[in-house]
């Protein structure tokens, strides 16, 4: 029998009695957001919407983004990263399992000094990938390659800015899948802390 999403009691401001809400809605009200799946347009839009809503509700209190994701779509991940930079509250990122591919990019986007990986977390970086099969016209193929290269350079520049590593190191890292422990991710500048302090 599937467990589903657990319900927890919650009493909102002005409510006389608590009502039952699902666990994630309760945690959202505490400004805790979760990326626990492949990054796609649906989850990206949900996280972006929640960040904007919570910022409008209180622009002074930090947001917390807990990440356990294999990565996913590049543009959807960049949307999450960009909104993290745009909202007024600091966004604290916490890797609670795996932050791979685009999820490692999002993890890096947390407020510098407030990016954390739990002790057994893993981080994986690699180059952005595009599906260039089934391109029937040479011009279409060339345009897509050009766009992929522009995005690739943008991602490299962001990693350089956020990690403090020189671009040649980032380019070398992105040539292949590079898996890191929490401590290695900290030494690499992707996170600032290991464990919750």
UniProtKB/TrEMBL annotation:
Location in or out of the cell: Plastid, Chloroplast stroma
Organism, scientific name: Samanea saman
Alphabetically ordered keywords of this record: Chloroplast, Hydrolase, Plastid, Protease, Serine protease
One Pfam match: CLP_protease
Subunit comment: Component of the chloroplastic Clp protease core complex.
Enzyme Commission number(s) of this protein: 3.4.21.92
Record's GO cellular component terms: chloroplast stroma; endopeptidase Clp complex
Gene Ontology BP, a term: protein quality control for misfolded or incompletely synthesized proteins
UniProt-listed SUPFAM superfamilies: ClpP/crotonase
PROSITE patterns cross-referenced by the UniProt entry: CLP_PROTEASE_HIS (PS00382), CLP_PROTEASE_SER (PS00381)
Catalytic activity: Hydrolysis of proteins to small peptides in the presence of ATP and magnesium. alpha-casein is the usual test substrate. In the absence of ATP, only oligopeptides shorter than five residues are hydrolyzed (such as succinyl-Leu-Tyr-|-NHMec, and Leu-Tyr-Leu-|-Tyr-Trp, in which cleavage of the -Tyr-|-Leu- and -Tyr-|-Trp bonds also occurs)
UniProt-listed InterPro entries: ClpP (IPR001907), ClpP/crotonase-like_dom_sf (IPR029045), ClpP/TepA (IPR023562), ClpP_His_AS (IPR033135), ClpP_Ser_AS (IPR018215)
Molecular functions per Gene Ontology: ATP-dependent peptidase activity; ATPase binding; serine-type endopeptidase activity
Superkingdom per UniProt: Eukaryota
Residues forming the catalytic site: 101, 101 (nucleophile), 126
Primary subcellular site in the record, as a coarse category: plastid
Protein name (Swiss-Prot/TrEMBL): ATP-dependent Clp protease proteolytic subunit
Keyword Repeat attached: no
Enzyme superclass (EC): hydrolase
CDD domains: S14_ClpP_2
The family this protein is said to belong to: Belongs to the peptidase S14 family.
Function recorded in the entry: Cleaves peptides in various proteins in a process that requires ATP hydrolysis. Has a chymotrypsin-like activity. Plays a major role in the degradation of misfolded proteins.
């Amino acid at each position: 029998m599937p467990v589903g999403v657990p319900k927890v009691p919650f009493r909102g401001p002005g409510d006389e009695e608590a009502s039952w809400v699902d666990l994630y809605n309760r945690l959202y009200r505490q400004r805790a957001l979760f990326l626990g799946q492949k990054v796609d347009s649906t989850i990206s839009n949900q996280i972006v919407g929640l960040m904007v809503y919570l910022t409008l509700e209180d622009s002074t209190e930090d947001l917390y983004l807990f990440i356990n994701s294999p990565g996913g779509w590049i543009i959807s991940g960049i949307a999450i990263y960009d909104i993290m930079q745009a909202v007024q509250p600091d966004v604290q990122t916490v890797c609670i399992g795996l932050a791979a591919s685009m999820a490692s990019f999002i993890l890096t986007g947390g407020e510098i000094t407030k990016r954390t990986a739990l002790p057994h977390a893993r981080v994986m970086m690699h180059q952005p990938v595009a599906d260039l099969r089934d391109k029937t016209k040479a011009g279409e193929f060339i345009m897509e390659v050009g766009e992929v290269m522009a995005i690739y350079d943008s991602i490299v520049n962001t990693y350089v800015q956020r990690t403090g590593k020189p671009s040649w190191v980032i380019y070398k890292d992105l040539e292949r899948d590079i898996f890191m422990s929490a401590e290695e991710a900290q030494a690499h500048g992707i996170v600032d802390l290991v464990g919750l302090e």
